[in-house]
TrEMBL record:
It comes from the Eukaryota. It is found in: Cytoplasm; Endoplasmic reticulum membrane; Microsome membrane; Mitochondrion membrane. Transmembrane segments: none annotated. This is N-acetylaspartate synthetase. PROSITE patterns: GNAT. Its main location: cytoplasm. Keywords: Acyltransferase, Cytoplasm, Endoplasmic reticulum, Membrane, Microsome, Mitochondrion, Transferase, Transmembrane, Transmembrane helix. It catalyses: L-aspartate + acetyl-CoA = N-acetyl-L-aspartate + CoA + H(+). Gene3D superfamilies: 3.40.630.30. Its EC number is 2.3.1.17. It comes from Salarias fasciatus. GO terms for molecular function: L-aspartate N-acetyltransferase activity. Belongs to the NAT8 family.
């Protein structure tokens, strides 16, 4: 299996309404709370804010295991999403599956087999989604996610952050600078499923935007295969605009066999946030 330098495939489930700027610089830790506002808080509310406070800081070597766990679990969630939800984004594939079902009845004249055909097709989609996503995970876990310090912390213009709640890593995001077009790519954003709904993903996204501004990048870009609308709304709420879309994207690790092409399709969207004119 050939595993090239992995493209960012980013998915998150969080959409928040907090709009304050993120303080701090690249080398600082940042404390952010979903309840932050200009209004005074009661003692009970202040206690809740302290309990729910999320620190966003740079990656440390001891975070490696938890970071890989969050990344792995986030990607594994895409297996059913891609197999089933993703089919709604593929009208041509829907038509093809309907045609195959009709052909099944025409050839077999069996109502039972015809009724089973959609179930068989969905089972095949799940199998190939699992196969492809496992191959993608293998690529990612043996490249940048195998040595985060080498890929993100040491190179100039790149960084990796973790969100920490009650001493536990609950979210991750990376920024990778690209000198050829003076942009920074937002990568590997994911939030632990147990801590979603607190606006952590939006805070992580803003950390990348702040990093890009302070390092004089012209724009922030990202690519995503996210199926759920919430992820796309998150990027748009941060100021990103969609610049392109591919209906048949090839993930790292895909073999592109005939059966794989029949039962696995994924939409890839490109986003860009322009920070300044060149």
């Amino acid at each position: 299996m050939h595993c090239s330098s992995p493209k960012m495939v980013c998915e998150t489930k969080i959409v928040a309404d907090e709009h304050d700027a993120i303080p701090g610089t690249k080398k600082e830790s940042m404390m952010w709370s979903p309840a932050a506002s200009g209004a005074a808080l009661s003692p009970a509310e202040a206690k809740d804010v302290r309990r729910d406070a999320v620190f966003i800081r740079e990656f440390e070597r001891g975070d490696q295991e938890e970071v890989r766990r969050i990344f792995y679990e986030g990607i594994m969630e895409r297996i059913p999403n891609t197999a089933f939800r993703g089919l709604r984004q593929q009208p041509k594939t829907q038509f093809l599956y309907a045609l195959l079902t009709v052909m099944c009845f025409y050839v077999t004249k069996s109502v039972t087999l015809t009724c089973c055909a959609p179930l068989i097709l969905m089972g095949a989609r799940y199998y190939y989604s699992r196969k492809v996503i496992h191959s993608y995970l293998d690529c990612a876990l043996h490249t940048d996610m195998a040595d985060i310090e080498a890929y993100y912390m040491k190179p100039t213009g790149s960084c990796f952050w973790v969100a920490v709640l009650d001493g536990r890593v609950v979210g991750i995001v990376a920024a990778q600078g690209r000198e050829d077009d003076n942009t920074v790519e937002l990568r590997r954003m994911s939030v632990d499923s147990r801590y979603r709904g607190k606006g952590i993903a939006k805070a992580l996204g803003r950390r990348v935007l702040e990093f890009a501004v302070r390092n004089n990048y012209a724009a922030v870009v990202l690519g995503t295969t996210a199926v759920k609308l919430a992820a796309h709304k998150l990027y748009e709420s941060l100021g990103f605009r969609r610049t392109g879309r591919s209906e048949d994207y090839r993930l790292p690790g895909m073999s592109r066999s005939a059966l794989e092409r029949l039962f696995f399709q994924i939409r890839y969207s490109r986003y860009r946030l322009q920070l300044r004119e060149e």
